[in-house]
Task: inverse folding
């Protein structure tokens, strides 16, 4: 498979496994790796299953399952993932299922868990519980991660056995028409990651699935990794930290143990006392405590189990996700074009009469202000020459620098400080100010 071209490039950065099969541990109860083969019901092929037990963890509380499509091996072998599983007390399992490229998607075991792959996973957990002397594996809840075709295994397994599913991650995946009943899995956390330049899986199917889940108030999140193609090395490297933060938060925020670590028990213990909701259009992140008003338009927000995972989502998507091309054209004109720059900065340039370029620059600083500091922040900007933006209630201030030919707006949102700078010809004209201020209002979600 073409994905194997990634392995030589990334193995030195990720790999933490033993250097030979003989070094893998098969002793009962020992930490390390155990490999077994189990039958797949209704199929002539078998499934190979590899288990990793984190060292120093006498009893695991969950199992993180990677569905084999080659690229998953990078995460299974990653030091980052294995260190995370020590903290979250999760075993890791790699499930290798046959891929039948000639069969329709709904008939592929790798894509559709009820066709036998799901039962093979449960059979393997029971057998591994016996072989390793770790009985908790037999009824452990699972969080499933899958890439491309393997990304369909998570939601189809969750639909088949919601009682055993703690969550799932769809990475650069497309359901290819396989039906998923969202009502059966609406209580299960899900993370859906798409590549901005993925011509194989695309973006639309992932976004459509996310919006369907959020419409049902499912705790689901969605992000587009800008510029990344299907199975790209940069894509998996750039998104690993974000995915692991989300996975760890889901597995670690289950509340006090009731003595059982079955998925149904863990689901009852999952705490949503404080969750973070991120607006897909504006990038604004808000925290919703118990008894809060909720998240308004659910289909426009992603659900996150921790502040760290929400902030990592923002960094992965980049600043330009909050300033799409058509918004920039409305502010600068039809000739607006994005210029290259770091992901935390979004800048557009547009030609104008006389040859001088007009520019629009958007920046975000991740910083929330306590209630007692909000007035201090506003007073400091006012003393620095800022003029309150009309209607902003001292949450946004305007600065004009005639020497540099720029007009700036600094705005405070729930989780960050936004800077919008318009420079160039007619930078402070009434029309330019109206357009820039309208953009600020959009970033506040008011248009």
Result:
């Amino acid at each position: 498979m073409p994905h194997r071209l990634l392995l030589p490039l990334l193995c030195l950065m990720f790999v933490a496994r033993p250097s030979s099969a003989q070094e893998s541990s098969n002793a009962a109860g020992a930490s390390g790796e155990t490999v077994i083969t189990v039958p797949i019901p209704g199929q002539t092929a078998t499934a190979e299953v590899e288990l990793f037990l984190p060292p120093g963890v006498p009893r695991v509380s969950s199992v993180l399952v990677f569905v084999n499509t080659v690229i998953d091996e990078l995460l299974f072998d990653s030091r980052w993932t294995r260190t995370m599983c020590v903290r979250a007390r999760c075993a890791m399992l790699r499930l290798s299922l046959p891929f039948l490229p000639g069969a329709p998607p709904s008939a592929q075991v790798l894509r559709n868990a009820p066709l036998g792959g799901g039962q093979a996973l449960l059979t393997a957990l029971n057998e591994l519980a016996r072989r390793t002397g770790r009985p908790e594996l037999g009824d452990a809840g699972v969080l499933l991660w899958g890439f491309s075709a393997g990304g369909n295994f998570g939601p189809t397994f969750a639909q088949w056995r919601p009682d055993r599913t703690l969550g799932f991650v769809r990475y650069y995946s497309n359901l290819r028409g396989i039906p998923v009943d969202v009502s059966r899995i609406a209580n299960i956390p899900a993370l859906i990651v798409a590549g901005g330049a993925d011509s194989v899986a695309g973006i639309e199917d992932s976004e459509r699935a996310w919006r369907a889940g959020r419409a049902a108030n499912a705790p689901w999140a969605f992000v587009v990794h800008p510029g990344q193609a299907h199975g790209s090395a940069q894509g998996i490297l750039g998104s690993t930290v974000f995915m692991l933060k989300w996975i760890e938060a889901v597995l670690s925020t289950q509340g006090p143990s009731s003595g059982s670590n079955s998925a149904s028990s863990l689901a009852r213990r999952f705490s949503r006392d404080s969750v973070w909701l991120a607006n897909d259009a504006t990038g604004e992140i808000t925290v919703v405590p118990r008894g809060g008003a909720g998240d308004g338009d659910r289909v426009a927000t992603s659900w996150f189990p921790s502040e760290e995972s929400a902030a990592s989502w923002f960094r992965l998507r980049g600043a330009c996700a909050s300033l799409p091309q058509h918004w920039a054209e409305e502010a600068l004109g039809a000739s607006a074009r994005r210029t290259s720059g770091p992901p935390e900065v979004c800048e557009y340039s547009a030609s104008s009469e006389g040859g001088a370029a007009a520019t629009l620059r958007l920046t975000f600083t991740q910083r929330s202000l306590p209630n007692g500091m909000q007035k201090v922040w506003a007073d400091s900007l006012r003393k620095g020459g800022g003029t309150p933006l009309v209607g902003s209630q001292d949450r946004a201030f305007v600065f004009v620098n005639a020497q540099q030919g720029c007009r700036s707006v600094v705005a405070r949102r729930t989780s960050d400080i936004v800077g919008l700078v318009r420079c160039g010809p007619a930078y402070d004209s009434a029309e330019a100010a109206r357009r820039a201020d309208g953009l600020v209002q959009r970033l506040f979600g008011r248009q």
User: Anything to note?
Assistant: Residues 1-30, 255-269 have pLDDT under 50 and may be disordered. The two ends are 47 Å apart (CA to CA). DSSP finds 13 helices and 18 strands in the chain. The chain has two domains: 2-317, 320-443.
